[in-house]
Write a structure and sequence with these properties.
This protein is mainly α. The chain contains 30 helices and no strands. It has helices at about 1-15, 30-45, 60-75, 80-105, 120-135, 135-150, 155-185, 185-200, 205-215, 220-245, 250-255, 260-270, 275-295, 305-310, 315-350, 360-380, 380-385, 390-410, 410-435, 440-455, 455-470, 475-505, 505-520, 525-535, 540-565, 565-575, 580-590, 595-615, 620-630, 635-665. Helix 7 packs antiparallel against helix 8 and helix 9 (about 205-215) packs across helix 30. The chain is globular, with a radius of gyration of 29 Å. The two termini are about 55 Å apart. About 45% of the residues are buried.
Length: about 675
């Protein structure tokens, strides 16, 4: 009995013992804060030491080696078998394609003083094709848009841009569609090709130009090859997605009926994925148009060359006029291809009685178009756009007048905004990056990568930073990084504000989304023009343009993330007494963490691409190095190294943010 009594007492003694001490969990934000504090302390002690600064005209051994390689290739281009029978042949084929399309619609052909098809024929073909693949509203938009290009006095430049875009898209789709189908059918090939597509889409447009000029020289051929490479990944990805999205039951039904793999592809998979594939073509066209305009830096003809020359001479009026033409061309191409992807569904839902007359009307339209083409081929008045481009001159004068007025009356406000952000945010952060010892910055970035993305992200960051040191443009890379990160922070602030607003209100979403969609259509060059007028040729101009360029994609991703928070969760929080601010900060944003991380990833990539383009308007750093490499032969090697540095920054940003996104969603 004694034992029986003592046991409960022992049990009670154990229950009354003090609870075990729990360890306080250290969050990732606390570790990040500690890393930044240590960085600031060491910066104060080691400022200005081992910064790897390189003057604008100085070259490293790597840069000189690149110059020697360039000179050697130029000297042996017509004797080296690799160039004689491979690169030169590719260039010849592409150049023949570009020349053919230009002779057709933009440049004098042979002994003719005008192209084979003049403006009236081009407008007629554009309207007819838009109607055939879309609808009459899109056809009217296309005809009005192309006519406006002529009224601006930029018909030939616009047709040169269109010729390069069409040539590049044809080349890109020739490879992209088969590769996309293959990736859609084969998991192994899809896994193999995805890292390459990620890498290609991470690289800013500038980066494609310098290496290709090394092998294909400057001019239209290099521009088309660079554009085709840049435009192919969207088509490959979307085509693969389209093939994989076909219901398995449909494929199984075709197999049960005895269809071969080839028949299943042609009769089932491709027809059922046609709409999505056309959307991939749309994205390729938009990517190609953006790249073709930037390819003006390697002497590609068209509107891009007009914009570049105007930006370099700070001629805002001419740049605005040419930029407006690029926007009009982009809108027309986007609307036509978008309408083409949805034509069958739209026609089916409309129930219009004119559908029965569609084929006869298309036949009549084809006859009218043929007459217009004949007239434009035969008569000068139908070949050369009439007038002197008075509309374009008026637009340019209005833009110049507006610029003058803004600079005279709003310079105090614009300069105050510029100086506040530059002196209060950009300069201190840039100084922290450029004046810290290179090894300290590298150590901090690797540590942050490990904390945010894991060990693999840290290893990739270390590799990128090691190669970045080897490029010899470390200081310029840090300047570009400072501008990119500052702009990305501001992009995310805009993204959260407008994204939450759109995610919580369908009315706001319907109002803002068309504007955001239109903003994503515009090529990067176009964004520089208005901010050049507001802020002059400074790095701040490039940063503001980058913010406006990257904000739409971040806003849309965050809006979708907020909207996807389960309604039951929101209702539960509301019933628990949460007000609007608490609902946003405690429920919707935390549950949309993966969307926020993805928005940061896309924002960084878009900002980096635009900040680099800003080298044309005084942004300096890596963008300037690339531009100077194209224009000054002795700096070609440095420009090539700067392009490599841009790639390394893009890969590093992408890997860290993607790894962080995976950790967040896990």
């Amino acid at each position: 009995m004694t034992v029986a009594v003592e046991k409960p007492q022992e049990t009670g003694t154990v229950e009354e013992a003090p609870p075990a001490r729990t360890e306080r969990r250290i969050s990732r934000s606390m570790v990040v804060g500690a890393i930044l504090v240590v960085w600031l302390v060491l910066f104060a002690v080691l400022r200005g030491k081992q910064t790897l600064t390189l003057a604008a005209a100085d070259l490293t051994d790597l840069h000189r080696w690149f110059n020697d390689v360039n000179d050697s290739i130029g000297a042996n281009r017509n004797s080296n078998p690799l160039f004689l029978y491979f690169f030169n042949e590719i260039r010849l084929v592409i150049d023949s394609l570009v020349t053919f399309v230009q002779d057709l619609i933009s440049q004098p052909s042979g002994d003719r003083p005008v192209p084979q098809i003049g403006w009236l024929g081009v407008v007629g073909i554009t309207g007819y094709v838009s109607w055939a693949v879309g609808n009459w509203r899109v056809a009217l938009l296309a005809v009005a848009g192309f006519t406006f290009l002529g009224l601006q006095g930029l018909w030939q430049e616009s047709m040169d841009t269109l010729a390069l875009t069409v040539s590049a898209v044809l080349v890109a789709l020739l490879f992209a569609i088969p590769l996309g189908v293959w990736a859609g059918l084969s998991d192994r090939f899809n896994r193999a090709v995805t890292p390459f597509l990620d890498f290609m889409q991470t690289m800013p447009t500038f980066v494609y130009l310098a290496p290709l000029t090394l092998f294909f020289l400057i001019g239209g051929a290099s521009a088309v090859i660079a554009t085709a490479i840049y435009a192919a990944p969207p088509a490959i990805r979307i085509t693969a997605h389209a093939i994989r999205s076909v219901p398995e039951t449909t494929v199984e039904a075709a197999d049960s009926l005895g269809a071969t793999r080839w028949q299943a592809l042609l009769k089932v998979l491709l027809p059922m994925s046609k709409r999505t594939v056309v959307m991939g073509v749309n994205q390729s066209i938009m990517s190609a148009l953006a790249m073709v305009t930037i390819a003006a830096l390697i002497d590609a003809p068209g509107l891009g060359k007009t914009v570049v020359q105007a930006l370099q001479s700070l001629d805002v009026g001419t740049a605005f006029n040419a930029g407006l033409s690029i926007v009009v061309l982009a809108i027309v191409l986007d609307r036509v291809t978008t309408a083409a992807s949805a034509r069958a569904e739209t026609a089916q839902n409309s129930g219009s009685r004119f559908l029965a007359w569609r084929r006869p009307l298309l036949g009549a339209g084809a006859a009218v178009t043929a007459v217009l083409v004949y007239l434009s081929h035969t008569f000068v008045w139908a070949a050369e756009f009439p007038g002197e481009g008075d509309v374009g001159s008026s637009i340019a004068k209005a833009a110049d007048s507006t610029t003058t007025w803004v600079q005279d009356n709003l310079s105090g406000l614009t300069n105050a905004i510029r100086d506040a952000l530059t002196n209060g945010l950009l300069n201190p952060f840039q100084s922290l990056l450029t004046d810290s010892p290179w090894w300290l910055v590298a150590a901090v970035l690797i540590a942050l990568a490990v904390v945010l993305g894991g060990v693999r992200a840290g290893i990739m960051t270390a590799l990128c930073l090691g190669l970045l040191v080897g490029t010899g443009v470390w200081s310029d890379a840090m300047t570009t990084m400072a501008s990119t990160l500052v702009a990305t922070v501001l992009v995310m602030l805009m993204g959260v504000v407008f994204g939450v607003w759109m995610g919580r209100s369908m009315l706001v979403d319907r109002m803002l989304r068309p504007t955001l969609d239109a903003a994503q259509v515009m090529p990067p060059f176009v964004y520089l023009v208005p901010f050049l007028a507001l802020f002059g040729a400074t790095r701040f101009t490039a940063i503001v343009a980058a913010i406006v360029y990257a904000a739409p994609v971040a806003i849309k991703i965050i809006a979708d993330g907020v909207r996807n928070v389960p309604a039951t969760t929101v209702e539960a929080a509301t019933s628990a007494g949460c007000n609007t601010w608490q609902l946003i900060t405690k429920v919707q944003l935390p549950m949309a963490r993966s969307a926020l991380t993805l928005a940061t990833n896309q924002g960084l990539i878009y900002v980096l691409a635009m900040v680099v383009v800003g080298g044309l308007v005084g942004a300096g750093a890596l963008g300037y190095d690339v531009v100077a490499g194209f224009s000054q032969g002795q700096l070609y090697g440095k420009g090539l190294a700067a392009g490599l540095a841009i790639v390394l920054l893009g890969v590093m940003f992408d890997r860290i943010t993607q790894a962080a996104a995976r950790r967040t969603s896990a």
